[in-house]
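[recover] target loaded
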């Protein structure tokens, strides 16, 4: 019983870490997209 609980806890931790990593990647992508958009706007002006 305790072993199953530990296994569930490890799975939950892994899922949370994967979601956090995806969120960080998404934030980096949005930051890069905003920066490139601003540079394109500066070149137009």
């Amino acid at each position: 019983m305790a072993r199953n609980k530990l296994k569930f806890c490890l799975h939950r931790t892994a899922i949370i870490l994967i979601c956090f990593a995806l969120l960080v990647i998404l934030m980096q992508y949005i930051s890069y997209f905003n920066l490139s958009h601003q540079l394109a706007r500066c070149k137009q002006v």
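[recover] notes: The helical segments are 2-44.
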